[in-house]
Amino acid sequence: MNRSRMILLTAICAVLLLIASSTILQPRRMNTIQQTADDNPPVVLDEEHNHPRIMEINNVGRGNNLKQFLDQRDEVTHFHHNKKDTSHYLDHEVAVNFKSLPSDDELEHIEKDIDGRVIKKDGLLFLFRSRSMEAPTVLNYFKGKSNVDFVELHYLLMQNDVTGTKTLNLPNDQFYQEEYQWNLPVIGTEQGWNISRGDEDITIAVIDTGVDLDHPDLVNRLVEGYNILGDNSNPDDDNGHGTHVAGIIASETNNREGIAGLTWFNKIMPIKAMSAEGYGTTFDIAKGIIWAVDSGADVINLSLGNYKESNVLKRAIRYAYNNDVVMIAAAGNDSTRQPSYPAAYPEVLSVSAVNYDGKLAEFSNYGSYINISAPGVYIPSTYFNEQYASLSGTSMAAPHVAGLAGLIKSANPELTNNEVITIIQSSARDLGAKGKDIQFGSGLIDVNKALIAAENAHSTRKKANERRNFFR
Hints:
The protein is of the alpha/beta class. It has two domains: 88-155, Peptidase S8 propeptide/proteinase inhibitor I9 (Alpha-Beta Plaits, 2-Layer Sandwich); 171-464, Rossmann fold, CATH 3.40.50.200. 28% of the residues lie in helices and 22% in strands. The chain has helices at 3-13, 63-71, 104-114, 135-142, 174-177, 189-192, 241-250, 282-294, 311-322, 394-411, 417-426, 447-456, 460-470; strands at residues 14-16, 21-24, 31-34, 44-46, 51-56, 76-80, 86-98, 116-122, 125-130, 148-155, 203-208, 226-227, 267-272, 279-281, 299-302, 326-330, 349-354, 372-375, 379-383, 387-392. The strands form five sheets. Strands 12-13-11-15-16-17-18 form a seven-stranded parallel sheet, sandwiched between helices. Strands 6, 7, 8, 9 and 10 form a five-stranded antiparallel sheet that branches. Strands 2-20-19 form a three-stranded antiparallel sheet. The termini are far apart. Mean pLDDT is 81; it is low at 3-67, 81-86 and 156-168.
């Protein structure tokens, strides 16, 4: 092959991997601020330490994590109903309901007897706290007294995990608990999980360098994939990039190790179309897209790109779009407004990267083709060779949006790809210039608002089916 032909093929076919700066996952505890379930997720900067500040959710009442937390508190104790179930109560307090209101002298006598005081009261109901006596001892003191209607320990009630409630559900994954994952709280993920945590029937294809098939945080999240380069069914990752992208979307959540994925139950379809060096051709990328569509993918993540249009790639994009697949692509990391493909194709949702403080990441591309933005700086995730790492790039921003698309389809499977894209954009939190702009598109994704919209949406597909049924 002569030199000029080689240069031409390289220019047309090379689909360069979007560069992602990486660091080994270091301990990094974030400063926090309080936030309620109805607040917009804050994206703010700690000016003193230049670290992101993310919300701290007091999730007292959730599962084994909470029980372990309470067990370590001196003022809390518990008893076992059986080997598994326990009830917690405050160690020096009892609640007493009197038959008639005790006099001041009677209350003074009681407080002296229990070496304590009244800390709360409501009508005939009094809450006593002793300085020196254990709660069971105080309980026995009140039992049998003629003016006592009932007395009981001061129990702690724990919130239950019920879909649709206002509770916030924090996963127990190690790095999430230790507040490495700033990226999920700031986009309303915790509130959104009360609406949908995903569905195993909704599959997200990751067309990339493959996925570490043995990674403990991914092994249960994978469906059958394909290695385009080797023409086999072993899409194992030899670069790390694809594993990182997959973990952001669907690392196994609430398994007490590693990180939490955006979705708890959606499946990842790993497709290796890029080499260990981190690049792939338009032919291989296009073949990967078509394979994903034909194999049942509902969403496709493309954390890759090039600044040259390709008819080969365009045809595959059109095929996926016509088959109702939602496609998300990274915008690029060259801090340029030059359109990157496939992100700039109208059928694809193009994603720019946001920093800790809600500003465009310094590396992120921008331009009129940008549709939406997502966190893309210091994003912890899975990495090949069963490791974890933190990477930055629009490659990391895109899978946040792909994960959201999977959650939306899980919440409302009737939605078309266009409807999913519309919900993602219309529910976004406006950043930068008012309205759609060249840096953030429609704004920062908001998982909670998007899932509320998805749950309430009446899809065009469902409407069409209803019309057909009406005339039968």
